[in-house]
Structure formats: structure tokens, C-alpha cells
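fyi for ur records
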Amino acid sequence: MAIPARGVSAPANAAREYHGFDRETLIQAFRIMQMARRIDDREVILKRQNRIWFQISGAGHECIQTAAGLMLRPGEDWFFTYYRDRALALALGVTPEQMLLASVGAAAETFSGGRQMPSHWSDPALHIFTGSSPTGTQFVQAMGAADARRLVNPGSQDLTLCCSGEGATSEGE
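which gave:
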């Protein structure tokens, strides 16, 4: 946000809106990004304490994932995430408790009952498909889901988001 020069008054709507976003949305975005980073940090500590056996960081991905999660529609749009999409999952409605239960492989974890690798979030109600550890395999699944949605519901405004890291670009899929 541009700060007005000394002696120049800000526009009347500056207190309510910042580049098209209201204050509450910006605070929500900051909280999601902060929470994603804090969960990452907590998992690193748990890993060092040998209380969890696996951790993949999403640090550095928070901003774009939060923006995507706030602009898209959980439960309407379709999401094929990968293991670094913590902020996206939080923005779509996955809770920090669910993520931490998955980290420790707790049976109370709602994604797979503690049987899936950590950072493989899923939720049928939010339309988040279960991720896979091999990078790049979600592209084929996302294309199939998008095509099926187009055939089942022509003219639908549903969007399918498929995420990956740069390592997946060298995969055969």
C-alpha cells in the first residue's frame, strides 16, 4: 500500500480498502500465512525431537497459496495439491489441528486415520483430492477430473487447480 506524502491526505476509502481488499481480508490472509509458517516451524521441532518421522516444509510458498485459497471456492472448485501446499489447504478450510494430527500419524486424523504420509491433506467436502508422494502424478488426475466435470456439467464454472513444485516439471506425466 502506498503511504501518502506528509501533508497529503489519503483518499476517503483508503481506511476501508487496500488495492481492492478490505482490512478483514488482509488480516485473514496474514493469519493464514503466519499459521502456515508456524505449523512448519512446529513440525521441524517435532522432527528434531523424534516425535514425528517426516516433515516437508512449505516455507516460502505462503503468499501465492493464500491468495489462491482466498480467491477460489472450496466445495465448488476442485483442488489437486501437493505436499508443500500447507497455506492453500489452510485457506481452503483444513484446520491446523488436522495438519498436526496428520504429522504425528494420529488415528483421529481425518484424512486417512493416520495411515497416509504427513502433508497429504484431503477433504471431500472441500473438494481437496488426496495427494500422492511422487511429484507430477497429480497432473493426470487433475486433467481427468476437469474433463469429467466438463462432460458431466457442460457450461459449469468449476475450476480445477493443480499445484506442483519445479521438480515435477521434469517428470514424464
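The first strand starts at residue 17 and ends at 18. thats all i got for now
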